Amino acid sequence: MSEAAFYFNTTCQRPDKSKPPSAHTNISIHSHAQPVKPLFKKGKGSPKTKSHQHTESPNPTGQATSLDPHAKPTSPRIEKGAHDRMFLSTPLPDYKLAANQTTKARAQAQHQAALEKANRKSSSTGSGSSASGSRSKHAHSIESHAAATARGEIAGRSSSISSTTASSALTTITSSEPPPTDALLTKPFARRNGRRYLRDMTLPYPLPCDLTEIHRQTLRTMLLCQVFNGPVCSPAFNVKPPKRVLEVGCGTGFWSVMCHRHFSQRGFTSINFTGIDIAPLAPRMDSDDDMNWRFVQHDLRRTPLPFRDDEFNLVMVKDLSMVTPTTGMQQSLMDEYLRILKPGGTIEIWDGDHSLRMLLPHAPPSTKEDEDDSEDEEQVHTNAMGTYTLTPQTPLATPQNQYLMDYNGWISKALEARKLTPMPCTTMRPMLLQEDENLAEIDSRRLAIPLGEVRWEREGVGGAVTQGTNGHAISSKGKTRESDKKMLTAGQAALRRTALLTVVQMIESLEPILREASGKGQDEWDRWQGNMMNDLLKNNGTSWGECLEVGAWWARKKKPPGS
Asked: What is the pTM of this model?
């Protein structure tokens, strides 16, 4: 693992435990998510908040939760050593708090507390029949309010929650869509096979939502930013950055952090970032005073999305192919992206194939050093990273490694059963091209990242090629030139090792659906997985040219005629 140290240093930093917990604790009682520990230390400019004094009901943590819908209860204290057991300083929220009780439970608690308050007032005043009638009216009003709350009729009730961290204020975004069931509101996660997954079984998303998976996705985001030479591939923002950015399926919001750092290093610090996801994993990034971050918890299956028309200059859709089925959801979301995208704004999509292929011997495209061409600059960077540009002429074949061949068969079967595609890279460009009435300047960039040192690179590309057991060319023989032979630098080897780690960790995360597709029992699966990891990580089992295929696609929304 030491080869990927320059990635590990950034993603696995332990938090500064000398700093006090964040004071950003305001959250509506209608929110599904509780405040989580910030990814970074708290900024100095955030004002302190005060809670209104109202009757409060106890919760399992021993803290009080305000019953007033407009009150701002404080978050629970996080244990001092809690992060010592975590790779990342992004703990999952605690869903046992009273603020996340069901609507019925909150209504009952509110009703009971109000009746007790009325009884106390009645005993202290000792008034006659007029006071008794007043109490009856008050109790009747409370009962009506509680019944309305149980039916979900209280204003502001929604399944879309928005939290803003540029200040201590929170905004609840309402929606006409019905909220999820009470069980999913209070406990959105469930443990299966020792991992934490989304509890809602109607979701096609097969990956877990625990810290191990967060670490893998963080590594993948850093890997993509490295090979694409930045967090955005579209040339539209080379000179002028976007003002408002939406990250769809943001997870922890790490891509937004990378994008913020990228532009802030160039002097642009006033960009507004918004993340939307069904899982409340996004930290509240209030350490950087100049980073404006807002998280909206929302189920993407519920359209319209809780945003205004023409709101964003950049809509970033990253690694969403395991979220959106190949049915009508992709088109409905594309319609929403175009609605909330500002005319002249950019939509950019990053994704990768889940089924793996193998690069056959070939030389990368040559570059012309004497010409100032952006494509040549991209190719120079691609060559420096030890990756390969994918074109229609790039020779590819099924993998030679037996374990990856097994995985390909199982993942294709498992994803197709969920109406997901195992090779989304083939669908992205056609999806943008069919929107040519609204989109212009459609372009893309696809790369293959080998998962280790490749034999035909070391031997040289020239001469005749030999064939593997499956009939595909895998290495070269014959007379070769010394210039054709390629030795990896330390950085290139580390990058490929990181890509391999993300693949192996994804296979681990997909164990439930892969084991089901394979028909293996637990013991048989454990043996297969152990042998697979030993072959890939220790025995250089990807030396035939097996690679991770990733891509970026972007387009600009056309402006109305005459504007």
From this structure: 0.69
> Is-contact 411 511, C-beta < 8 A?
no
Concatenated DSSP letters for 352-373? E-SS-EEEPS-PPPP--TTS--
Spatial distance between the Cα atoms of 494 and 323, rounded to a whole number of angstroms = 29
| pLDDT tens column, 169-228 | 333 333 344 445 545 645 778 888 889 999 898 999 999 999 999 999 999 999 999 999
pLDDT for res 364: 78
DSSP characters over 200-238? -TT----S--SHHHHHHHHHHHHHHHHHTTSS---GGGS
Distance CA 28, CA 99 (A): 8
- 185, 183, 164, 186: which is closest to 27 by C-alpha? 164
Determine contact, residues 25/170, Cβ cutoff 8 Å: no
More confident of the two residues 456 and 79? 456
The Cα 423–Cα 421 span in angstroms is 5
Separation in Å, CA 431 to CA 334, 379, 415? 9, 26, 20
Q: In terms of Cα–Cα distance, which of 308, 315, 248 is closest to 275?
A: 248
- Give the pair of three-digit tokens for residue 27: 């959250």
| C-alpha distances out from residue 522 to 144, 273, 514, 518, Å | 53, 43, 11, 11
Alpha helices in 30-88 (DSSP H): none
| Residue of 458, 463, 474 lying closest to 546 (CA atoms) | 474
Strands (DSSP E) found in 371-500: 388-389, 396-397, 439-450, 464-467, 473-477
Looking up tokens 């892969």, which residue turns up?
A: 514
pLDDT in tens, 145-183: 444 444 433 333 345 666 555 433 333 333 344 445 545
Question: For residues 563 and 550, what is the distance between their CA atoms, to the nearest angstrom?
Answer: 36
- pLDDT tens-digit map of 403-459: 999 999 999 999 999 999 999 999 999 999 999 999 999 999 999 999 999 999 988
